[in-house]
Design goal:
Shape of chain B: globular
Number of strands of chain B: 10
Order of helices and strands of chain A: HHHHHHHEEHHHHHHH
Strand content of chain A: under 5%
CATH topology of the domain at 1-72 and 194-237 in chain B: Rossmann fold
Low-confidence stretches of chain B: none
Strand order of the largest sheet of chain B: 6-7-8-3-9-10
Largest sheet of chain A: 2 strands, antiparallel
CATH superfamily of the domain at 1-72 and 194-237 in chain B: P-loop containing nucleotide triphosphate hydrolases
CATH class of the domain at 1-72 and 194-237 in chain B: Alpha Beta
Shape of chain A: globular
Distance between the termini of chain A: 44 Å
Low-confidence stretches of chain A: 141-156, 175-186, 209-214
Strand content of chain B: 25-35%
Helix content of chain A: over 70%
Structural class of chain A: mainly alpha
Radius of gyration of chain B: 17 Å
Number of helices of chain A: 14
Helix content of chain B: 25-40%
Oligomer: heterodimer
Number of strands of chain A: 2
Largest sheet of chain B: 6 strands, mixed
Chain lengths: ~400, ~240
Amino acid sequence: MDFLADCATNVADQFWAQTRNGLTLGSIYAMIALGYTMVYGVLQLINFAHSEVFMVSTVAALYAIPAFGVTDGDPATGIAVIFILIGVLLCCMAASGALAVLLERLAYRPLRKRHAPRLSFLISAIGASLFIQYLFVLMDGQHYLFPIRGIADPLGTPLLIIGGFLAVVAIGLLVTGTRRGEEGWVDAGTLAGLGAIATLILGAILVIKLPDILGPTPQSVPELFSTSTVFTLFGAPISNKRIMVVVVTVVMLVILDAFVRRTRMGRGIRAVAQDSEAASLMGVNINRVVVVTFLVGGLMAGAAGLLYQIVLGAPAFWFIGFKPGIKAFVAAVLGGIGNIRGAMLGGLLLGLVEAYAVPCIGTQWIDVTAFVVLVAVLMFRPTGILGEQVGA
Amino acid sequence: MTDDLLELQDVVVRYGGIEAVRGISFNVADGELVTLIGGNGAGKTTTLTTISGIKRPSGGTISFAGERIDNLPAHEVVELGVCQAPEGRRIFPRMSVRENLVMGAFARGSAKQADVDRVFDLFPVLKERQKQAGGTLSGGEQQMLAIGRALMSEPKLLMLDEPSMGLAPKFVEKIFELLGDIHSQGTTILLVEQNAHLALQIADRGYVLESGEIVLEDDAKKLLGNDQVRKAYLGES
């Protein structure tokens, strides 16, 4: 009882500050959640590598911000902030969008072509996620190009990776055999198996070589502009950074909503989500729709990554995508997977619930809340708050 | 009759190891209304989905207006002017009636108000329900929407897969009457039906499909009088 009473007083005390925090974080969850939900809509696939699409944005920010002349300790000021912000935002979105499209091409399309079972997609998603993470472990954030660590050993690491990969392919082919399937050279099970084995071996190599090649620490990203309080809402200071998050989110969501509802391609996406065969009978190029869907999801995740970085001062880091990624997945399911407005609602709701939980159970327990909320909601509404309405 | 618009030659379609269509050949000339009749599992729907490019034939050729189309992806077949109102109607359930129609014009680019109005003239009930979600329409209304949607692509060849299925008799008659109108306005039609009687009444020519093979072909009027057809498909003994 004491706990509940304390909780109520604390939440009441911090209500506006936590509402502010919740809406900021919730906006970011919502933007990532859109990528999960849209891809699910067209392919009924959970793209578990989406958290890496988000992560890449923070790495892009690490390179893009200095490229615009902003260095550590020397943030942009005045009107320049807006231009630099837009420039960096576009870079981050481009990086994430490109990775999302690449993922579709390399990790999913080969499986789709061969009519692989659902499970293969899941394995491929997890494999791709790990692969990208460890690829970025190899990156050294101190440099502005794309050097791989171990300069004393300039050929060793790449050779190790390429050699390892070839060995994996060879082993995979030996183990599974090369079969001429009905529609392809190797069948889907083989591919999925290869992916899994490749991931395991690459991971093992990385662990063995870890002391040499790991980009060991999170790289802090230069602050784009400095924080200042713009106004106070019932005693809760609202900073320029939080306002920026809300503005960027609202703009992106409005553009997305208009794109999906009003444009020809948007209609194509919804048609594929509702009935993909009927859509192709109407002349919709399914492959193009899938690529655009991944691209749009990637662009949103890219924007979210930069906002997350700016507002929380998060570092560029190979593992940075995990938590926001999994939370956004929860948000998408919470709102009703496949449902675009559900993802927006689920994201905001999850952000708020987490924020209000902070005064009660403390920040160290916060990650539990997301899943408790998910379980609680799914018990009563198994298809999420707005329901699983693919392509609505 | 002019050149063949659609020509199938020895087309074979397999599902796994099973041959659903076993080397059929037929043609539809420009301006004709041709019907493909046959019972359940005869391979009618498979034939249409194969022409549309959803399913790949494992043998034979399909040409449209003199061009091979059996290797084209489905959306390119539609772009050439072959559109179908598929079996089971396949309306987009959460799009409005109007949006469903606009989707029909997807391959052409954009739909003009005049195009939508033309379909509304044909099916006035769709105009009344234009803001309603497609999934909330009755079966007959959905069939009209499916036909209207296919017409929105301004097809050179309109294919219909069992438009009478699951509909009340008065709807069936109405739809067949409209099909006759659409045909007399110059659209070439390939009509797949189980209801042989109705189909043969409006068709120029007919083919009878049985277990994936064409067993009979003739003028529609002659097929209507054919003993074999009367026994098997018209329920007469």
